[in-house]
Design goal:
Blueprint: H1 10-37, H2 44-73, H3 80-113, H4 118-121, H5 124-141, H6 144-150, H7 167-171, H8 179-212, H9 217-247, H10 256-280, H11 282-291
Length: 294
């Protein structure tokens, strides 16, 4: 049905959302093209950034075209198979984003804490293995989410106050017990995203401790500058997930809040990530100028 409680005004929300989607597509494609064409960027740090850009494009594209179709053309109908496919895609890409952040944190941890061993540890083979492990982990562990949702009996109304197929929103329409669905959703969040978050923050805590022990102020400043853009985006991503989880508790009283935050968490990170990296990473800015002869 779109955004609950503001159906008559939601057309105005579509304009900034469409702009964010265009930025997400354009900026992430720009990063992918630049990393592919510029040989100096063929390093693990930028390869992980390219993977993040591809994941961001996928995450935004799983939801934004349908959301804009609802807001612009009143195309509110979606079949159950399409809905379950969207549930799977959203969960997979969100877990993939968390996994890529973990890979990037490990890359920075090894680069700063063990600089001499870095070339032998974080190799091209390491990047391939890490990427494949994230794909397998997230692709397999998210399969039960739509499968369990598809096994429920839907015999009441067939409308949800949402802009996309939220798993919790869809299973709330079921007539039978959804305890297993809720439990697996919670377990997935804590085991996958929660463990990633703990490891990411632990990595950056060790990085900061190592940087503070450096005798050279210039070296410490350079190390912190390299990690700052990563840390900004990671803190935003995981903080948004925690806030989104908490606001679901208030969803029955103020349903607009979790719906709006859910949509924003899907569209803002893909548009914010490339902008922050483009502004704060000198090597990437140099790569842009070389590739496009600016």
């Amino acid at each position: 049905l779109g955004f609950p409680g503001i159906h008559e005004f939601q057309i105005w929300l579509s304009l900034p959302m469409a702009l964010l989607y265009i930025v997400a597509l354009g900026a992430n494609l720009l990063i992918l093209i630049t990393i592919y064409l510029e040989p100096t960027l063929h390093q693990p740090m930028y390869q992980f950034l390219g993977i993040l850009a591809a994941v961001d494009i996928g995450l935004a594209t799983t939801s934004m075209p349908k959301i804009l179709a609802i807001l612009w053309f009143d195309a509110k109908t979606i079949s159950l198979p399409e809905c379950f496919a969207q549930i799977y895609a959203i969960h997979t890409f969100m877990c993939m984003e968390s996994g890529v952040f973990l890979c990037m944190a490990i890359d920075r941890y090894v680069a700063i804490c063990y600089p001499l061993q870095y070339p032998s540890i974080v190799t091209e083979a390491f990047v391939i293995k890490a990427t494949l492990s994230m794909l397998l982990r997230n692709g397999l562990l998210t399969i039960p989410v739509p499968v369990l949702a598809a096994q429920r009996q839907y015999c009441s109304r067939n409308e949800i106050d949402h802009c996309l197929c939220s798993n919790l929103g869809v299973i709330s329409l079921a007539c039978d017990d959804i305890t297993v669905n809720r439990f697996y959703q919670l377990a997935l969040a804590w085991l996958v995203v929660g463990s990633d978050m703990i490891l990411v923050y632990a990595s950056y805590a060790l990085i900061i401790r190592s940087v503070l022990r450096l005798n050279s102020t210039e070296a410490a400043s350079k190390a912190l500058s390299t990690c700052s853009s990563h840390l900004i985006l990671i803190m935003f991503y995981y903080t948004a997930i925690v806030i989104l989880s908490v606001t679901h508790l208030a969803g029955r009283r103020v349903p607009l809040i979790p719906v709006l935050l859910n949509v924003m968490h899907i569209v803002i990170p893909p548009s914010l990530n490339p902008v922050v990296y483009a502004l704060r990473t000198q090597e990437l800015k140099v790569g842009f100028r070389k590739v496009f002869s600016l």
